[in-house]
Amino acid sequence: MKYDVVLKNARIPQGNETVVTHILVKDEKIAGFVTDLEGIEYGREIDAEGHLTLPGCFDSHTHFMDPGFTHRETFLTGSSSAAAGGLTMIMDMPCCSKPSVRGVEELEHKLNAIKDQAVIDYAMWGGVTGEDIRAGKKQIVKEQADYGVCAFKVYMTPSVPTYERVTDPEMLEAFRWVAETGVPVGIHAENFAMCDYFVKKFQKEGRTDGPAWAEARCVEAEQAAIELGINFAESTGARLHIVHMSAGVGARLIGAAKKRGLSVTSETCPHYLMLNYQDAMTEHRQFAKIAPPLRTKKDNEELWEGLRNGSVDFMATDHAPYEIATEKEGPGMDIWSAFPGIPGVETLVPIVVSEGYNKGRLSLSRLVEVLSTAPARQYGLYPKKGATMIGSDADFTIIDLEKEWTIDQKETYSMAKYNPLHGIKLKGKPVKTIVRGTLVYDDKEGIVVEPGFGQFVRRQRIEKLERTITY
Ligand SMILES: [Zn+2]
């Protein structure tokens, strides 16, 4: 048999050890592993040069803004930025497009608008809003799940005008509906009344400093929201997922709920591990404005610990870029009116490798889980994605663990040329990104595939993450 591609000298993880092998690829899938290429026929070859070769890394939380808000980001710029950051797969949110995705019709409209743009593969979140719940549109949940979305998103606080938040009773209904599909329901966990009260209070007091945003969107609001989510998960049997968890108390609540046997999971983002609100919101103001907000140094460390012990299941970015001139620094804009959101796909893998693995906070096997295997399992894409196994898609993230570099907010494929992580020095960088056996990104040459190479991937199955808490 002639193979299509050989990935030579790939250092693949085996638990916490590594082994160097040549990986044979046929029909875009992994077809075998050999230590000697003598007598093997193959077409193209890619050389991993002995670098760490992870199963393709996956960001399950992006807002690529397309179609509808393409002055912020397009699927081409967003997916190119992701590829340059070592990601082979993303999963896009239903809220930041026009129309927002709340049914198969809107989902197909979106897929059609982006199909000629993506350079890496993508899966989709489904949507359901307060408005849909009040209208009794239960069928939209089933139809999207049947179509292959991997999860559903609900917001407890207002976020995007075209995607209405849920009240508490509406969230309970949403949990009941989604529970019947078997896929997770991801919640933006902040208590609306608390956020609203303190934002208005601080505005009345005339505060316009950066940290005011974080103090108004207080940690108690996130705690109350997560607790309510856990209660609803327990009573309805829904698989609760806390997206972009920012606070250490969240990790403790999720860890305790896991120990009680509930199907609850969580993700955190690089900025919640690296930045605190006092420093970053003073320095970067609205360019570090996100929701939930940055917290404290103590939260940074508690979330690293959560990631290590399993109460935080995996990493994601919440990549949500905005236009500087009109949405971050528009005329008369202040910390309250600037749009909340920052880019992230290009720096996720580098930060977790540098600050997690290279600094000894995460083992190699945990690194593989939090960047690839765990989100792939959670969203029913494993082992097509998230695995270096025979029959899996030949997706690889090749990392030079020794490369030292500095994050520069201007050097990015994203349209958003701002980043509160600007200036942070890292050790370790993705140097090649391979999707289904094709080199997509090379550190020296940039993006080397045509727009539209990336494919939509439907959910393959229903799989629950194992509850593993390590103490
Ligand atoms: Zn988000």
UniProtKB/TrEMBL annotation:
SUPFAM superfamilies tied to this protein: Composite domain of metallo-dependent hydrolases, Metallo-dependent hydrolases
Q: Where is the Amidohydrolase-related domain?
A: 54-440
Instruction: Quote the InterPro entries the UniProt record gives.
Output: Amidohydro-rel, DHOase/Allantoinase_Hydrolase, Metal-dep_hydrolase_composite, Metal_Hydrolase
Write out the GO cellular component annotations: cytoplasm
**GO biological process per UniProt:** purine nucleobase catabolic process
Annotated Pfam families? Amidohydro_1
* One MF annotation (Gene Ontology) recorded for this entry: allantoinase activity
The entry's family comment says: Belongs to the metallo-dependent hydrolases superfamily. Hydantoinase/dihydropyrimidinase family.
What is this protein called in UniProt?
A: Dihydroorotase family protein
